[in-house]
Amino acid sequence: MSETLIDEIKQLQKEKNAVILAHNYQLPEIQDIADFTGDSLELARKAKEVEAAQMIVFCGVRFMAETAKILNPGKKVLLPAPDAGCPLADMAKVEDVVEMKKKYLGAFVVSYVNTSAQVKAVSDVCCTSSNAPAVVRNVPSDTVIFLPDKNLGYFVQKQVPEKKLIVWDGYCFVHRQFTFADLKKARELYPDSEILVHPECNPEIQENADFVLSTSGMLKRAKVSQAKTIIIGTEEGLLHKLKKENPEKQFFSLGPARICVNMKKTTLEKLKNCLENEDNEIILEDEIMKKARNALERMIEYV
Ligand code: SF4
Description:
Mean pLDDT: 96
Largest sheet: 4 strands, parallel
Helix content: 40-55%
Strand content: 15-25%
Shape: globular
Number of helices: 15
Distance between the termini: 46 Å
CATH topology of the largest domain: Rossmann fold
Radius of gyration: 19 Å
Bound molecules: iron/sulfur cluster
CATH superfamily of the largest domain: NadA-like
Strand order of the largest sheet: 2-1-3-4
Number of strands: 12
C-alpha cells in the first residue's frame, strides 16, 4: 500500500513539476520522500532558490510554508496538512506586538521565524535558532524586543549580555516537556554520552546539557562528536536523520520521545491528495508579504 502511494506521489510530483520540502521533525516516510529536508532556515533558503519547479509542497507547519511563499512569491506553495499550526507562533499576536513597540519606542523587534506572516510584517528583523545570537548582537539598537520564545530569549541574552532583551512570554509545548530528571537519568544511564539540547528547552536543561544547538547544529555536532552515544533534547523526528547519517552511533531521546502533533499531521496520503488537487495553497496579502520579506531578508544582513 505504502509503496504504491510512494510511486503515485513520485509520479504526481513529476507531472506537476513540484519540489517537496520537509522539516526535520516530519514523519520518517515524509522525510524520505522529500527532495530536501532541513531546519527552518535551511528550508527557507531552499524555498527561495526554487526556480524551475512550478510549485513548492511544504511538509511542515504553517509559518514555514508562509515563509516559503514570502521568499518566493511567484511559486504556488501548498501545505498538505492545512491545520498544522505552531502553538508557539500563535503566542505572538500582531496587535500585542504593535502595543509592545509603542511601549518600548526605539527598541528593535527581533522575531523568531516561528511567527505568523502578520507578525513578521511588523517586526524589524527575523532570526532562527541557529542565528539568533548573531542577529541580536548586530542590530543597531541596545534594546531588543525578542519574540515569541522565552527560552530562546534566555539563550540569546546569555550570549549577548551587552544588549537589553525584552523577552516575550511564549514557549514551545514540545521542548518545555524535557525535565531535569530526564537529564539526570540520561547522565546516569549513559555516562559517556553527549547531551545536545535545543534552545527552546527550559534554562535548567540548557545549563546542564553539553551543547545547546539548533537541529542543524545537532546534525553537524553528531558527525564530529567522539561520543558513541548521543542524547537529543528536541522533537523525536530528528532521530531519523541522525541515525541515517551516523549508522555507527547510537541516538536516544532525552527521556520519553517528545512529539509535535502538528509536525506529524502530514501523512503520505495527505501529501498525495495535496499534489493531486493542488489545494491548501498559501495565500497572503501583497503588503504583508512585502513587509515580512523585508524582515526576513534583513536577517541575512545581520549574521
Ligand atoms: S516543535 Fe514546537 S516550535 Fe516546532 S512546530 Fe511544534 S510546537 Fe511549534
